[in-house]
Specification:
By secondary structure, the chain is mainly α. It has 5 helices and no strands. It is globular and about 50 Å long.
Length: 154
């Protein structure tokens, strides 16, 4: 019969990220994260937002919305810096959750604020511009992170 030797296995696919402790790049390599831990870095942001949104919505009944947005921006900015300088995985998770908390102020308070402040004929345009900037910001973060990561040793 026709016998053909099996081709040697090329090894693991380069598309499969390394397991914890096997290195990797970025946050995964810096902290030696598993797939779950790596995913949690992104997911914990949503926990902060989900917890913060109803809190900010309730607070705006008794406090000035613009001051709450300013507080959220301050929290978001400080937490973003915290993410950049996090010395450990636990601190990174805390900072990421606070980024979500700060962003919650924009999610639930900015649209009503824009609705109150915009001229009636331009309300839709103002709201469209605000909501358009969310995916633009996310995409810009990935692009800038990739462009700056290697030169800065991230």
């Amino acid at each position: 019969g026709n016998t053909t030797a099996a081709a040697p296995s090329p090894g693991p696919s380069p598309a499969v990220p390394p397991a914890a402790g096997e290195g990797g790049s970025g946050i995964r390599g810096e902290f030696g994260l598993s797939n779950f831990q790596d995913g949690l870095v992104f997911s914990i942001f949503m926990v902060g937002m989900l917890v913060g949104s109803p809190v900010f919505a309730q607070l705006c009944k008794t406090l000035d919305a613009l001051r709450l947005i300013a507080f959220g921006l301050t929290c978001w900015s400080a937490a973003t810096i915290g993410c950049a300088i996090a010395p450990s995985y636990a601190v990174l998770l805390l900072a990421r959750s606070l980024v979500g908390l700060g962003e919650a102020s924009f999610v639930c308070l900015a649209a009503p604020f824009i609705d109150d402040a915009a001229p009636p004929a331009q309300k839709s345009s103002w709201l469209a511009a605000f909501y358009m900037m969310i995916p633009v910001g996310v995409a810009s973060g990935f692009i800038l992170g990739e462009a700056l990561g290697e030169p800065l040793g991230w």
